[in-house]
Design goal:
Helix content: 25-40%
CATH class of one domain: Alpha Beta
Shape: globular
Radius of gyration: 22 Å
Strand order of the largest sheet: 4-3-5-6-7-8-9-14-13-12-10-11
Mean pLDDT: 87
Low-confidence stretches: 1-11, 164-172
CATH architecture of one domain: 2-Layer Sandwich
Number of strands: 20
Largest sheet: 12 strands, mixed
CATH superfamily of one domain: ANL, C-terminal domain
């Protein structure tokens, strides 16, 4: 595989190094879990040692708890190190960049800023090579081929422009990018022209595309693969997209800080955590939770020496499982991502409700005629449900939504208003947030 990639993709330094990492990832995925843990531990000890001696912020943090790198003897010892938040990074930015990095050779990537101020992440060339490999690895393992036409619907293209004939881009694949700022009709027209083998987009974009394809009975768009990322993938979106594209969606999980962290293979048993690239913890009250229990996802990156992030609170809530995927890969599994910690709702009693709990209230099996929705918690005891509807929707559906939201709130005394709208507005990052809580104490994990 490695030789084939190098022969096909010119003998450039970037492609050669990226191909090497890709080859290693594809090789390691079949190793025993004990071997993967040893690889992960070796990389963890290396990044902690580097941070201790080269990153002022982490040297201060480790000294504050009297931890030296040589005391990290197993993965569990990572818990001795305090967690780092986005605010910590922003407040100590110059001190969290490695002293030995040449900034003139680095690139800067930014988080979306959907939860506030964007965070700038520094990456040196070695980091970029590995990051590219992680991205392409997940695509390839889901069935993407080198010659496939991959179309991504991007929020980063300005003025609604689309790139129809890009050069070889990030990673090994030349790809086409369409702008989410285009009208849905324009993107459908472009997709008909391109005839992609694979589409990579937010779930909300996939929803819109699938809805239009079904509505107009479009037959010219037949991708073999569909990839979703960045937003919560709901059962409603899965059902419509699977039907419209006649293929199953592969859910990908990652962030701007760490790139690809996990991916869903064709068995759809969960999301495979790529342990070569990161240590993923699921934490509650400062301790690792049991399998099947909700917790905050905390990530330690294992390859970005320019700007290490150790025990970084990424802001997502998830559930892991000890089940094995029958694909044979040894990467452990995330069973599901529940959503952002900021999207949890706090009820009058103080109880926290997960975003997916409210999403399940809108299950299309029960609620008919709703094409798109957004649930906004305005107050502890008041929810506004915005819905885009079709002809199946009626007054009975309004009553049903109110009843099901209250049921998901465990019968607490709350008011639910259902408002029919023409469209659901996206936020400034281009994402469509399904659940929004405006309650100040909205993050039940802030004390963790």
């Amino acid at each position: 595989m490695k030789t084939f990639l190098l022969r096909q993709l010119n003998d450039s330094n970037t492609l050669a190094r990226t191909a090497h990492h890709l080859y290693q990832l594809r090789k390691n995925q079949w190793k025993r879990i004990q071997e993967l843990r040893l690889i992960q531990l070796k990389r963890l000890r290396a990044i902690v040692t580097h941070a201790y001696y080269n990153v002022p912020y982490y040297r201060k943090i480790l000294r504050s708890v009297k931890i030296k790198p040589e005391q990290i003897k197993n993965i569990e010892d990572l818990r001795k190190i305090p967690m780092t938040t986005k605010s910590d990074v922003q407040g100590n930015y110059s001190n969290i960049i490695s002293n030995d990095v040449d900034l003139s050779k680095c690139t800067v990537n930014s988080t979306s800023g959907s939860t506030g101020t964007p965070l700038k992440v520094i990456a040196d060339p070695k980091t970029r090579y590995y990051s590219i490999a992680l991205m392409q690895y997940a695509f390839f393992e889901c069935g993407l081929r080198l010659r496939d036409k991959l179309v991504g619907v991007s929020v980063h293209l300005k003025n609604g422009k689309s790139m129809l004939k890009p050069p070889i881009g990030v990673g090994f694949l030349g790809r086409t990018r369409l702008s989410w700022m285009n009208t849905i009709e324009e993107n459908i027209r472009l997709l008909k022209k391109i005839k992609p083998d694979a589409i990579y987009a937010y779930p909300s974009v996939l929803w819109q595309l699938a809805k239009e394809i079904r509505k107009k009975n479009v037959s010219e768009i037949n991708p073999r693969l569909i990839f979703s990322h960045a937003e919560t993938l709901t059962p409603r979106c899965i059902q419509l997209a699977n039907s419209a594209f006649d293929t199953r969606i592969h859910n990908l999980y990652g962030s701007a800080e760490f790139n690809r962290l996990a991916f869903q293979c064709d068995r759809h048993s969960g999301l495979h955590m790529i342990t070569d690239g990161a240590v993923i913890e699921v934490i509650k009250d400062g301790e690792n939770v049991d399998y099947g229990e909700l917790g905050e996802i905390v990530v330690t990156g294992l390859y970005n020496y320019a700007m290490p992030l150790i025990r970084y609170r990424i802001g997502d809530i998830g559930v892991t499982t000890d089940e094995n995927c029958d694909c044979g890969r040894s990467w452990p599994l995330i069973k599901r991502i529940e959503g952002r910690s900021d999207d949890f709702s706090i009820l009058p009693s103080g109880q926290a409700i997960s975003p997916m709990n409210l999403v399940n209230a809108m299950d299309p099996i029960y609620v008919k005629g709703v094409m798109q929705y957004q649930i906004v918690q305005e107050k502890r005891d008041f929810f506004l449900v915005k819905v885009v509807v079709n002809q199946e929707f009626n007054g009975e559906q309004i009553s049903l939504i109110q009843k099901r939201i209250r049921l998901r709130c465990h019968g607490e005394e709350i008011n639910v208003d259902v408002q029919v709208v023409n469209e659901i507005a996206k936020d400034k990052t281009g994402k469509s947030r399904i659940i929004i809580s405006k309650v100040e104490e909205k993050n039940p994990f802030s004390k963790w």
